[in-house]
Amino acid sequence: MASKEKEIVLEVDDLQKSFGSHQVLRKIDLKVKKGEFVAIVGRSGCGKSTLLRLLAGLEKASSGTIFINGKPLSGKNPSVKIMFQDGRLLPWKKILQNVGLGLQGDWKECANQMLKQVGLDGRANDWPSELSGGQKQRVALARALVHEPEILLLDEPLGALDALTRIEMHQLIQSLWLEKNFTAILVTHDVEEAVALADRVILIENGEIAMNYPVKLPHPRKRDHALFSSTVNHILNRILGDGGHHGLRAAKN
């Protein structure tokens, strides 16, 4: 990669993905800088989760290349972690053991410290069944971040949570992102969520990037700020020009 792009941690070049005769992603070109927070939105079935799985190395592209720090991605990369909509916790392991999955050596101190950072200090010896949905997602976040990933992929991790818990999780993710300076890529149906967290919002339509919109609001974001509402509405109007909602959540002003 060229020296002028030394800040680019992730680059997607002419990425395409088909399942049989059905082409999901047609031509994706994208560059993400180190420490940037990018949100990907779009109608249901547009391919945004497929894109995230490709970035995680969980799917193989039909054509095109993904570069992590200038090197082509081939399979999973240890510097990239993904967090899914469900916590995917192992019910037969206690919380500390779930967080420590994959860690080597004397890992318990690191896992305990990460639990403290996500607000679950004192819950290390509980079972997943004893936690609420929001708490389980905090454990999943701790499990991803304990590996100190350079890139964190978030595949609608808050979609099943109630509104207040979602806002609390927004604040937690934002504070940890600001503290740890990892690069984050979020897939979401919720445009308010995208604007609350991201530096820019990417819209996928017909398998291509149809919009790449910068969010010009300082962190932490204030939802009652006039620019917050106008940004949400601008993106929604672009997506829902036909007046249909198609699985996307509109702003509630």
From TrEMBL:
Name of one Pfam family that matches: ABC_tran
PROSITE patterns membership: ABC_TRANSPORTER_1, ABC_TRANSPORTER_2
Keywords, comma-separated and alphabetical: ATP-binding, Cell membrane, Membrane, Nucleotide-binding, Translocase, Transport
GO terms, molecular function: ATP binding; ATP hydrolysis activity
Domain ABC transporter, residue spans: 10-231
Matches recorded under InterPro entries: AAA+_ATPase, ABC_transporter-like_ATP-bd, ABC_transporter-like_CS, ABC_transporter_ATP-bind, P-loop_NTPase
PANTHER family linked to this entry: ALIPHATIC SULFONATES IMPORT ATP-BINDING PROTEIN SSUB (PTHR42788:SF17), TAURINE IMPORT ATP-BINDING PROTEIN-RELATED (PTHR42788)
Keyword Oxidoreductase in annotation: no
The keyword Lipoprotein is assigned to this record: no
Protein name (record): Aliphatic sulfonates import ATP-binding protein SsuB 1
Leader sequence segment: none
Domain of life: Bacteria
